[in-house]
Amino acid sequence: MFVQPIDYFLVMWFVLALASTVYVAWDQYRNNPEPVVMKWGFILVTLYMGPLGLLLYVLADKEPRPGEHETFIKPLWKQGAGSTIHCVAGDATGIILAAAVTAALGLPMWLDLIVEYAAGFTFGLFIFQSLFMKSMMGGTYLDNVRKTFLPELISMNFMMAGMAPVMSVLMMGRDMRAMVPTELLFWGVMAIGVIAGFALAYPANVWMVQRALKHGLMTVRESRGNDAHHAAHGAKHEHHGMRSDATVPQLAAMAIVSAFALTVGMVAPANWINLRLSAHDVGGAIMPPGMIMDRDTPAAAMLDMAAVDPRDVVTTHGITERGARPLAPRVENGVKVFDLVTSTVRWTILPGVTVDGYAFNGQIPGPTLRFRRGDRVRINVTNHLLESTTVHWHGLILPNVMDGAAHVTQDPIEKGGTYHYEFTAVQDGTYLYHSHDHVDRQQALGLYGALIIDPAVRDPSIEADHEYAVLLQEWLRREGLTFPAMPMDGGQPNYFTINGRAYPATDSIAMRVGETLKVRFIGSNNGFIHPMHIHGGPFQVVAVDGQTLPPSARYQADTINVGPGQRFDVIWPARQPGRWLLHCHIAHHMTNNNVEMRGGGG
Ligand SMILES: [Cu+2]
What we know:
The protein is of the alpha+beta class. The protein is built from 12 helices and 23 strands. The strands form 5 sheets. Strands 13, 14, 15, 16, 18, 19, 20 and 22 form an 8-stranded mixed sheet that branches. Strands 3, 4, 5, 6, 8 and 10 form a 6-stranded mixed sheet that branches. 46% of the residues are buried.
């Protein structure tokens, strides 16, 4: 539930709002001499506006000392506030109920706004004004509908002119949990919207009360009997007694301006926000800071770049848990069988720094699968992610249906499903496996691993005393959330890992002078090229993309560009004693969140 700091604030706000509402309700019914409709107006508005509603109540309406209500509520600003309360209570209730229903139905935002306006207006006019006020105003229900139509329209227009842009901008902002009624943030946005609507509707209400178009605050003393109502306006207190002196041009101009404000509030956000999307499309997604989201950004793009929801994490792995651990196959009828299971995990890349990612068998990178050329292998992939996935065996020659390209060679593996990949290894060398469904997102979040196929016949010229595979990845972690890193606005990474760890939490390889080390560089990342460099002299490149180079084609280098999907096997001799670095030569990739730690990072 607590995903962002604002969630703590929201809990505080709603506790205050509930406490304020309970107080206002208690005081209204115990002490305050005013009509039932106003009691409920203040109760609802305090529920929506929290402590601000309470403040308004005690400053403008709560009887300060017995018998003073009549004089206390006389000032025009209080009358205007009462009139606005009245409008907001009805309209906002309609709008909020409609917003919850339209979100549940998954209507696009633009239609949400229209339904909300209609619901707010209907609720305000037909129920809150006409029905509840009938007892106050006298006359028939239809008389009341007719009389209150124009004032209600003007007030509602201004109310929605304030509320609509707040809803559009905040619900479809960076944290789209605001679109989902089961999230506190949704109710927080409603509260801000009501406050904005109140502020915009207030001036018009002051004018309408002044011109006797609307009722403001009133006093009703129960003890004096049913017909002893005392309106605050002295002479205007009798039934049917409201005679407005507003002129037709005044009313027309007010109505036109309110309609213009409404149009701006409803339509203007569509310049910047994709109002065709619905809560079903993108509700709950939290977008990275700096991502460009405009009126054309499709829902799929938002889902692709959205943070992993920390509430989806099923297991947490500390700094002692390693990725890329060798996975021993079991042999069934001569077939080497591996089981891979995907899930959402919290993975530690540095002491105190975790990422929320997608893992095979709870590891980032996934387990290292190693077998021999000529082996028959079967890999059962079970998907426990909340989204579909597949696995592609990068660089392998195999039957098309085993290639793992979602929607191309197979249907994606849905949540809870399993796909059996089976093939015979006809190559040897360094390969990799990775997700091939929403690759942009899933591989960047950790769905990759090393695939090492030993030659059928040993070749001492490509062997070394030590061996180490380097699987590269970029990460974007901000505000406590992990987003898939990608070369796109808002997607730039700020952490870089080798085998799921950033320096100085990376591995060291202990060797003696004269020994050799075979490094298998694997471009398991998918957005950036990393010029990988080893200190202490050149290495020999002996294989490229799994293909062993003939001796005449092997070459010396000390830096090699490892692009996404590429593999290079290099042999590095330890020539001098000491500590020698292996790192990416893009200096920024040697930092952790832009910080160099103990001489490096990443
Ligand atoms: Cu790099």
